[in-house]
Amino acid sequence: MLWIAIRMLTGDAQKFYGLLFGIGFSTLLITQQMTIFVNLVERGASGVYNAPEAEVWVMDPVSRTTDVSYAMPGTALDRVRSVEGVEWAVPHLRAVANVRTADGDLEGVAVIGVDDSTLIGLPERMAKGDKSVMFAPDSVVIDDTGTTRFFPPEQNPIGERLELNDQRAVIRGIADSIPSFTSTVVLYTRYSNALNFVPGTRNRLSFVLVGVSEGQTPEQVAARIEAETGLKAETREEFSQAGVNFIIENTGIPTNFGITVFLGFVVGVAIVGLTFSLFLRDNIKQFGALKAIGVTNSKIVQMVAAQAGMVGIIGYALGVVGTVAFIKGFSANPFFKGFYIPWQIPLISFAAVVVILAITGLIAIRSVLNTEPASVFR
Amino acid sequence: MDTTTIGGCAPEAAICARGISRDFEAGQTTIRVLHDINTDIRPGEMTYVVGESGSGKTTLISIMCGILWPTEGEVKVFGTDIYKLSDTDLVKFRLNNIGFIFQQYNLIPSIDVASNAAVPLIAQGMPREEARERAKVLLDKLNIGNQADKLPRQLSGGQQQRVAIARALVHEPRLVVCDEPTAALDASSGRRVMDLLREVAVAPDRACIIVTHDNRIFDLADRIIVLEDGRITHDGKEMPDGH
Ligand SMILES: Nc1ncnc2c1ncn2[C@@H]1O[C@H](COP(=O)(O)OP(=O)(O)OP(=O)(O)O)[C@@H](O)[C@H]1O
Ligand SMILES: [Mg+2]
What we know:
The structure holds two protein chains of two kinds.
Chain A (H helix, E strand, L loop, with lengths): L1 H10 L1 H30 L3 H4 L6 E4 L16 H6 L4 E15 L5 E9 L10 E4 L10 E5 H7 L10 E4 L2 E10 L8 E6 H7 L9 E6 L5 H12 L2 E4 H15 L2 H30 L1 H10 L3 H33 L14 H27 L8
Chain B lengths: L14 E12 L2 E13 L4 E6 L5 H8 L7 E6 L2 E2 L5 H11 E4 L11 H5 L1 H6 L3 H14 L15 H13 L5 E5 L7 H15 L5 E5 L11 E6 L2 E6 L7
Parallel strand pairs in B: 3-8, 3-9, 6-7, 7-8
Antiparallel strand pairs in B: 1-2, 1-4, 4-5, 9-10
The complex binds adenosine-5'-triphosphate and magnesium ion.
Adenosine-5'-triphosphate binds next to strand 1 and helix 1 of chain B.
C-alpha cells in the first residue's frame, strides 16, 4: 500500500514538485540563514582565531573583546610572566589608525602589534610572502580581505607604500586570516613598530598573550593570573565566546536572522500545508474507495506518512545541497571567507522539516480520515 | 419464497437484513429514508435494486455492505452480524468478503490497470507482483488483458469500469455490490459491461447486488427489488407492470 501511496504522490507531478519546492525552499532558507548567522557572529571572535598560539588572553578588567579593550601599563607583561604556570607571555597591541592610500583615499584600519621576536599574534598562515618579512624596517603585513579593499585585483600589493598615521609603512606580505565582523582592513606589524605607528598615551599594551606550561590547564593559569595580578584573564574559548556574545548583544543581527528563519518556517508551513491539503483533497475519492474496500484508517495514516516522508527527505536534501552550493559558490567572495556549515544546523533544519510536515500532515489528513466510506457511492 | 415475513435468517442467505431503518439529519429535522426493510439476498443470484431517485437505494446497499450504520435493525452477511463487529474488524470483513464497483470507477490514476485491479489483494498483504498476476488473469476474462500496463486514463469509460469489475472480484469476495455501474457509460458499452459482469461475477456461492436506473439491463436480473420512498414495494423476477 505504501508503494501505492508513493505512486499517488509522484503521479501528481505538479503537487509533488510544489511540495518539494516548499520543503526545499524552507530548508534552504533556514539552513542558509542560520549558517550565515553563525559564521557572521563568529567573526566577533576572529581576533582570537587569528592568534592561534595564545591559550590565555590577559587584559585590563574593563576590556571586553579583541576590539573593545582598554590599554594596560607595560609593567603588566612582567607581572603576568611571573605567575606560575605561564610558559611564555608576549605583548599584543591592537589599535585603530588612518591610512592614506596611493589614490589619496583615507581609510580606517586596525593595527595589530605582534611580539617582536616570536611574532606570536600573527595569523598561522601567510597568503603571500614569508613571516620573516615582518623583520624588515617599516614592514607591515596586510590581511587578505583588506587587500581586496585597498587594491584592484590585478595589482600586486607587495611592495606598496602606505602612509600610516603619517608614518611610512611598506606592505611586505599578505596574511591568510579570518576577516573581522566589520571587515576592517588589518595591518600586522611588530610591537615596536606599532608603538611608532600608533601615537599614544602612556599605556598602550592592549593584551598579554600567554602560553601555559605542560601539565597546566588554561583555566587554572587564567584563574591564577587573575588572582595574582588583578588583571582579567580569559581562556581562548572564553574570550572567543565573549567576542561572539558582543556581536549578538550589540547588533540587530540575531533578530534579523531570527525573523528570516522564522519566515522560512512559516513559508514552508504555508506552501506545504496548502499543497498537501490540495493533494489529499484531489485524491479523496480514491482514499474513500480504499476505505470502503477495506483499508484501515491506520493504514491510511501510514500511506500519508510515507508521502510526507518522501517529500521531506527529497526536499530536505535539495535544500541542504542548495545551501552547500550557495556557500561554495560564494566562497571566493571575501565576505564569505572561511564560511562553514556547523553540523548542528542541518540537524536543526531537519527538525524544522519534520515539524512542518507533522503540522501540515496532521491538518491535511483529517479530511481523509473523516471521509465516510459510504461517500464513495455518492 | 418471501423470507421477509419470517423473523429468522435463512442459513444460506448471503445478506439477511432485519428491521432496517435509517435517518438522516437535514437541518433541524430528521428524515427517515428507509423504513423497516426486511429482505434476504441469496447467493448465486444477481439482485437488482431499482427505484426513483431519492428512494433510498444507495442508502440500503451501503448498509447491506457494511459502510453505513443503520439507525435501527441488523444486517448479517454470511452469518456475521456486521454492525456488532469492531470498526477494525468490520474493515477487515469488507476487505475479505466484499467487492465494490462504483459509478465513477474511483481507480487510482497514477498506477497501471493491473495494479489497480490488484488493490484488494495488495491491501490484504499479497506481494505486488503476485497480486498483479492474479489480476491479469481476471483482466483477460474481461477482454482487457492487453491493457494491463496502461494507466486508467488511457482507457475508455467502459474499459475503466471493467478494470473496476476486476478490482471488485480479484480477491474472490462472496458479495459484490455495485451502485449505478453503467450510469457513466453509453448504452452499448453499458450493456457490454453488464454482460461481462454477469459472466464473471455470478457464482453459486456469491451474491451480487446492483443498484441501477438503467432499464435496458433489467433483463439480466435474477431478481428485482423495487424501492419507493424507503419501502420495498415489489420483489420478483420481473419488473412490475407500469414501469
Ligand atoms: N449523508 C446524507 N445526509 C443527508 N441526507 C442523505 C444522505 N444520504 C442520503 N440522503 C437522503 O436520503 C434519501 C435517499 O438517498 P439515496 O442516496 O439512498 O437515494 P437513491 O435511491 O440512491 O437516489 P439516486 O437514484 O439519486 O442515487 C435522499 O432523500 C437523500 O437526500
Ligand atoms: Mg444512489
